[in-house]
């Protein structure tokens, strides 16, 4: 047992060092430097070893093995998604959106960890409209670990525990993360999406299981932007895209509710649609989004 613990602690320390080192790498995207501002002070305990990795190390140590690849317990997972699951460090927050730590994307999406430790991480959802005020939707790729092949808003992801994406002022960290992921998922160049053009409209807190193992527990920033862009989807992330007007979206909702064509919508997108989207769409067209912006309230939705 002592050998198992030693191995787990060593690997956790290596992962922690790697995540901290990446904070100082120059970002290729437009972002605002924190200058002398330090990252939030966090103890070593705020970085947790992925649950499956710890178990795998322990069992192999008992058989005389002293090392194991981080993804051994999930060998069937797509290689790209597996790498992101173990390398990406999500920002852990409390229900008031205060940073309390960081952890691997893997741990943050394990329902066992979410339920046992109430892990809650910061996220964002982008709603991109073209000049005809049509909303760009994406269908998540078949290899996504959570909610594969469901239709959702333009881009949904997480700011990472790095300097440029922890900036609280003017929600710049979340905006930088959105710019990064729109390039990664949809091939939209950063220069076509200036960070100051994203309008943060509100925040929601929700929990949603994907299957028996994976799920989401997110404090989600809702970012709206109106831009005409060229889209080049990354097949590792996106299976399909489409622009829809309001009537076309209502038809998608009808099909999803009726179970037609196997069409499914992501739970966070459905929550935004049911509670806010059509009302906000009017303001998108009128150019009056500032009238409905509410970044003080965190809406707890189920």
TrEMBL record:
Gene Ontology molecular function, alphabetical? isopentenyl-diphosphate delta-isomerase activity
GO BP terms, alphabetized: chlorophyll biosynthetic process; isoprenoid biosynthetic process
Instruction: Specify the enzyme's EC class, one word.
Output: isomerase
The Enzyme Commission number assigned here is 5.3.3.2
KW Transport (keyword) present: no
> Which pathway does the UniProt entry assign to this protein?
Isoprenoid biosynthesis; dimethylallyl diphosphate biosynthesis; dimethylallyl diphosphate from isopentenyl diphosphate: step 1/1; Porphyrin-containing compound metabolism; chlorophyll biosynthesis
InterPro entries named in the record:
IsopentenylPP_isomerase_typ1, NUDIX_hydrolase-like_dom_sf, NUDIX_hydrolase_dom
Annotated PROSITE patterns? NUDIX
Highest taxon of the source? Eukaryota
Keyword Isomerase among record annotations: yes
Keywords for the protein's UniProt record, in alphabetical order: Chlorophyll biosynthesis, Isomerase, Isoprene biosynthesis
Domain Nudix hydrolase, residue spans: 119-271
Show the GO cellular component annotation of the record.
cytosol
Q: Which residues cross the membrane?
A: none
* Function description: Catalyzes the 1,3-allylic rearrangement of the homoallylic substrate isopentenyl (IPP) to its highly electrophilic allylic isomer, dimethylallyl diphosphate (DMAPP).
Q: Which family does it belong to?
A: Belongs to the IPP isomerase type 1 family.
Name the NCBIfam families for this protein: IPP_isom_1
- This chain's protein is named isopentenyl-diphosphate Delta-isomerase
- Give the species: Flemingia macrophylla
